[in-house]
Amino acid sequence: MNMKKIVIFGGGSGLSQLLKGIKLFPVEITAVVTVADNGASTGRLRKEMKIPAVGDISKVMLSMANVDQDVIDLMNYRFTKSKTLGNHSVKNLLLTALLDLKGNFDSAIPVLGNILDLKGTVLPLTEDNINLVGITTDGKKVVGEEQVTKCASKIDYVKYDKDFTVNPKVIKAVHEADLIIFSSGSLLTSITPHLVDKGLVKEINAAKADKMYICNLFTQPGETDDFTVRDHIDFLEKYLGKDSIDVVIANNAVMSSKLAMKYANEEQKDPVLLDMHELVDSHIYVIADKLFTIEDGYYRHDSLKTGYLIFSYLMDGKKK
To answer: What is the CA radius of gyration of the chain?
Structure first.
């Protein structure tokens, strides 16, 4: 029997956390990752080497790896004591070296994938060296993903600094998918950057697969303040089109720990509320459960439970 095919759009920590769980199930995974990050190690490598962002791709690849902990620790190692190596991680340096050797992600990623014994496929949204641009509600332009994240003004929408070509392998994966997922993560900088290209959006909406959204656990200050699950869906559908999302997985358990209080008081992050009254008249199928866990002092999606819920939906279909 052929395995079901999942395409997941995202970037950074949210996507990585999700993949750690879903890779344990018998599905064929394609993770599509943004390449516009311009912060920290990745930003410096982009500037020096004139390349698209490698950080989110290398992070996602590591989350899909089938290697022992020593290899993971090696890949995550940063040269903190070296001014020359500038706090770069080994995985970022390896992918940058492969880009330099091979000339593009299409040839570079499989080499690192072989080293990591990858469970699935990782695709960059594009091979082009592009920068994210945020347009504020008063019409000002903010250039760079890091600058968009830190912008004090409200961002109305995002675009890119130039036209780009969507990776044709992404289009093919969308056509063949049995389920298309928009990962948890920053709406502005991890998810909607995939939805700027109208051609790709058209292909997503035309695909036979259901479209699923894994809703964030917490709001993002200055980005999604006071957003409910419904608000997150509406934000995505500004780019995808109305009634594009078929199913949402959302947390319905109360967060009342000291950590939740710390999130609220120190970081201005509040739990995203699931109000079923807001969704009662919609066609959206809601999968609600306790989705969170605490890892290394942070709230995270429970990757195994979330992966199980995705797999169950994929096998059973929408329950009317």
So the answer is: 19
Average pLDDT over residues 257-276: 93
Taking only the tens place, the pLDDT of each residue in 115-161 is 999 999 999 999 999 999 999 999 999 999 999 999 988 899 999 99
Confidence class for position 232, pLDDT limits 50, 70, 90: very high
**CATH code assigned at 251:** 3.40.50.10680
Residues 6+ away with beta carbon under 8 Å from 192 = 157, 158, 235, 236, 239
Q: How many CA atoms lie within 13 A of 110 on its CB side?
A: 5
| Domain total in the chain | 3
Q: How far apart are CA 64 and CA 280, in angstroms?
A: 36
Examine the domain organization and report whether 189 and 297 are in the same domain: yes
| Whether residues 192 and 301 fall in one domain | yes
| CA angle in degrees (0–180, nearest 5) for 33-97-9 | 5
Domain identity same for 178 and 314: yes
CA atoms 122, 40, 304, 313: torsion sign: negative
DSSP code, position 126: B
96 and 65 in one domain?
A: yes
Q: Are residues 170 and 314 in the same domain?
A: yes
Cα(23)–Cα(120) distance, integer angstroms: 8
pTM recorded for the entire structure: 0.95
Range of the domain at 143: 129-163
CA distance 203 to 198: 9
| Bridge-based pairing state of the strands 4-10 and 121-124 | unpaired
